[in-house]
From TrEMBL:
Protein's name in the database: Cold-responsive protein kinase
Top-level taxon in the UniProt lineage: Eukaryota
Compositionally skewed regions (Polar residues) per UniProt: 331-354
Topology term for the membrane: Single-pass membrane protein
Low complexity bias (residue ranges): 314-326
Cellular component, GO, one term: membrane
Domain annotation Protein kinase: ranges: 1-298
Length: 354
């Protein structure tokens, strides 16, 4: 028996729940904080089961994450179904998501030192390397982005939100699938041809890495057009030999220049247009840890979906249309609700089922 007090920790705009575009939209209804009888804090994720997709995302999260334990993945404690809602119970992460804190502007007072940023990048890289290379069948997360990286009280990162994840049996290297994910983090080959491999996650990780080092989101529509896209800005600075200028001003110069430059180059490698030119996640983790070299890898301009879509706009219909931006607005930027209510629910613990 789980007795919970419920407080909204993420209020979601209704647009996120009602599909409008060609991208499947998420079916999360709300995320609440709760407490076990022994005082342990939990995060309670309520998914709609009114649609087939809601049920699919619920099952996908359970199947994917329930058997996995890694220090850089969220821990699923249990699940339950009540009326037409499906509920997942996770360990509560005190420092919320990178989208809300590091990229959340004035909404957060947390300070992200250079050291903390490197540890976050390495942790996420290790978590993804585990999903891609150690788990059988391999798992492609499909929605790596700042709002799906949660931080515990010590800023240790945890990859969360496995609603879109796909399992890859050993014999299968790629699947052709309907595109799901978040514009801005989508690898071009996946967005345009629906070709999904682990390299699509690696591309998203590269975008995330640049966001962590620069402290800005991959798209900022409030800036002049030529500065809106982080990858473009980064590449322009790289060509001018001024890449280090991309590092977050909030650090006030308090960072290791060589290390920062290495991190940004890894970001470029992960976002190369050709998937085969992107290193595997275990190699990426080693590069970030300083145990594998970066300079022997050729770096060319990262693959940008906007460039490619402009080129292809006159050709055959792509999977992702430029209007498919339903998830570009991060829900985590919506105002935090302080609604409180109480509930008691029964849930089956994942760890009871052996
Ligand atoms: N375990 C957790 N601890 C703390 N906050 C969480 C937790 N899980 C989710 N959240 C918050 O809720 C947001 C949405 O959760 P997520 O699982 O990504 O659902 P979805 O993207 O389907 O809405 C996260 O970005 C984060 O702000
Ligand atoms: Mg999410």
């Amino acid at each position: 028996m789980l007795t919970v007090f419920i407080r909204h920790i993420s209020s979601l705009d209704s647009a996120a729940v009602r599909p409008k575009s060609s991208f499947p939209t998420k079916q999360t209804v709300e995320i609440n904080a709760g407490k076990l009888n022994d005082g342990t804090l939990m995060a309670i994720k309520v998914l709609s089961a009114q649609s087939e997709q809601g049920v699919r995302e619920f099952l996908s999260e359970i199947v994917t994450i329930s058997g996995l334990q890694h220090e850089n993945l969220v821990k699923l404690y249990g699940c339950c179904t009540e009326r037409d809602q499906r509920i997942l119970v996770y360990g509560y992460l005190e420092n919320n998501s990178l989208a809300r804190t590091l990229l959340g502007g004035r909404n957060s007072n947390l300070q992200f030192s250079w050291k903390i940023r490197t540890q976050i990048c390495i942790g996420v890289a290790r978590g993804l390397a585990f999903l891609h290379e150690e788990v059988e069948p391999h798992i492609v997360h499909r929605d790596i982005k700042a709002s799906n990286i949660l931080l515990d009280k010590d800023f240790k990162p945890k990859i969360s939100d496995f609603g879109l994840a796909k399992l890859f049996p050993e014999t299968i290297t790629h699947v052709s699938t309907r595109v799901a994910g978040t514009f801005g983090y989508l690898a071009p080959e996946y967005a345009i041809r629906g070709k999904l491999t682990r390299k699509a996650d690696i591309y998203s990780f590269g975008v995330l890495l640049l966001e962590i080092v620069s402290g800005r989101p991959n798209k900022n529509r409030r800036l002049p057009a030529e500065q809106q896209n982080l990858l473009e800005v980064a590449w322009t600075l790289y060509e001018k030999g001024k890449l280090v200028q991309l590092v977050d001003n909030a650090l006030d110069g308090d960072f290791d220049t060589d290390e920062a430059s290495r991190y940004l180059k890894v970001g470029f490698l992960c976002t190369q247009e050709l998937p085969k030119n992107r290193p595997s996640m275990s190699t990426v983790a080693k590069m970030l840890e300083g145990e594998a070299g970066v300079d022997e890898w050729a770096i060319s301009k990262p693959g940008l979906l906007t460039d490619i879509m402009t080129l292809k706009s006159s050709s055959s219909a792509p999977h992702a249309s430029s209007s498919a931006t339903s998830r570009t607005q991060d829900k985590s930027s919506s105002s935090e609700s302080t609604n409180m209510s109480h509930a008691t629910m029964t849930f089956s613990s994942i760890y009871d089922r052996n």
